[in-house]
Amino acid sequence: MERIVLRPLAKVNLGLDVVGKREDGYHEVRMVMQTLNLHDHLVMEVLQEDVITMKTNLPYLPVNDNNLVVKAVKLMKEKYHITKGVRINLKKVIPVAGGMAGGSSNAAAALLGMNLLFELHLRTGDLMKLGEQLGADVPYCVLRGTVLAEGIGEKLTTLPPAPKCGVLVVKPSVSASTKKVYEAFDDQEEVKHPLIDELINAIEQGDLHEMCKYMGNNLEPVTMAKYPIIQTIIDKMEREGALRAMMSGSGPTVFGIFEDLEKAKGAGEQFAHMKGVGQVHVTSFYNVRGRGKNYGDFKTNRK
Ligand code: ATP
């Protein structure tokens, strides 16, 4: 294969509980992760010459070794002694530095792309293991779907697919540094913990309303203290009919759960011209079908 088009998917956290801090400084978490049908476009092409070139639609994104796609390609080239080059073209749609694992998902897609372009025949588990070297969320972005992540985010347990619904994603025009959010989290005197087991139970029952009742993220008050617009967006989403609206990951992106896509679309229109809003997307939950066979619909076409 000479060229592949991939769809790196975004994620939200239906639940995020920072349960503590380990002696080595890493935070212990319990998170319910959910992949969305919101995706970037990543094209990878084999070059006969041993070079890596990269283009992207966002001028402020690095296109050198600091880009997670380049990092993933380099990792695979070194590990599997690949002497051909790769041309990368990335069109970003997923908000950058928004708490939606956009970079991690790009890295996961690049690992898969290399696997297919160079016919390495690696399995999902192998790609997840490689992903650990690129970032804490990368193994999850290889696995995808509704998943419980524990430990420092590396212990993954697949859950039944979360109930069908419409999802509205609104990204304020500010960005949050995950590192700074965790630092501010550590300075808090009191921490409220979301009920992750109840959330999982609601998902297992397939009960959308119960799921919404138990969704929670204890990083939300931390990022919100810095960016009050998060609360404004949440309140507006709930007024516009969201069963629940919440911040994803370390933020500042807010997502709302609606009964269906139409309702999410209707509410989305109310955010199109809101001051301080950078991006608005209407989407749905992605769940993996046929995992292990051909990576579901991670890739869109082959040439
Ligand atoms: P998480 O949810 O895992 O905390 P995030 O959504 O907050 O991630 P990302 O969009 O993944 O954040 O990216 C954070 C930083 O990583 C950016 O500021 C950017 O400079 C860098 N980066 C490197 N490669 C990429 C990439 N392919 N896409 C987006 N950002 C990238």
Describe the structure.
With 303 residues, the protein is an alpha+beta fold. It has 2 domains: 3-160, Ribosomal Protein S5, domain 2; 166-284, GHMP kinase, C-terminal domain (Alpha-Beta Plaits). Helices cover 32% and strands 29% of the residues. It has 10 helices and 14 strands. The protein has helices spanning 68-79, 102-117, 124-132, 138-143, 178-186, 196-205, 208-214, 220-226, 229-239, 261-269; strands at 3-6, 9-21, 27-39, 41-47, 52-56, 85-91, 146-150, 155-158, 166-172, 216-217, 244-247, 254-258, 277-283, 299-302. Strands 5-6-4-1-14 form a 5-stranded mixed β-sheet, with helices on one face. Strand 7 (146-150) and strand 8 form a beta hairpin. The chain is globular, with a radius of gyration of 19 Å. Residues 290-297 have low confidence and may be disordered. It binds adenosine-5'-triphosphate. The site of adenosine-5'-triphosphate has 20 residues, from helix 1 and helix 2.
Tags for this model:
303 residues; alpha+beta; Ribosomal Protein S5, domain 2; Alpha-Beta Plaits; 2 domains; 5-stranded mixed β-sheet; globular; binds adenosine-5'-triphosphate
Report the total helices: 10
Q: How much β-strand is present in the residues?
A: 25-35%
CA(first)-CA(last) distance? 7 Å
Helix/strand order: EEEEEHEHHHEEEHHHEHHEEHEE
- Main sheet characteristics: 5 strands, mixed
Low-confidence stretches: 290-297
Q: What small molecules does this complex bind? A: adenosine-5'-triphosphate
**Class per helix and strand makeup:** alpha+beta
| The CATH C-level class name of the largest domain | Alpha Beta
